Amino acid sequence: MEQVVDITEAAALHIKEMMRQNEEEDAFLRVAVKGGGCSGLSYGMGFAHEVEEDDIQSEHYGIQVLVSKEDAPILKGTKIDYKQSMMGGGFTIDNPNAIANCGCGSSFRTASNTGTPEEC
C-alpha cells in the first residue's frame, strides 16, 4: 500500500471525532488538490464512500485515506497535523512540494503545477 500523505495521531483523533459527530464512521477520508486560492492550488479534505479506480489507499491510525493518482505527485510526502492553540484548533498541512504558500496557509503552488491563482 503506497503512502502519499502522512496523518499524525493528533489529526487522526480529530478526524475520527468529526466522523463520529457526522455519522461517517464508515467513510474514507479523501485528500485532494483543486485549482484556486491566491497561490493557484488549494487543499481539500472530505468524506467519501467509494474508492475510485484511480485512487491510492492507505491507512493511518485506523482511518482509510484516499488520494487520486492525479493528485499523488503534488501531495507526495505531505504531513497533515492538528494543532491546538489559544485561538482554537485547526489542521496544518506541510507539503514539501509547495514552493509558494499563500499568507492564509490554504493555498500553494508547486514547481510543476501553478494552478489558477485567484483573489484571496
TrEMBL record:
One Gene Ontology term of the molecular function aspect: 4 iron, 4 sulfur cluster binding
SUPFAM superfamilies given in the database record: HesB-like domain
Core domain sequence ranges: 5-105
Record-level GO BP terms: iron-sulfur cluster assembly
InterPro entries (alphabetical): ATAP, ATAP_core_dom, FeS_cluster_insertion_CS, HesB-like_dom_sf
PANTHER family: IRON-SULFUR CLUSTER ASSEMBLY 2 HOMOLOG, MITOCHONDRIAL
Name under which the protein is recorded: Core domain-containing protein
Natural source organism: Cytobacillus oceanisediminis 2691
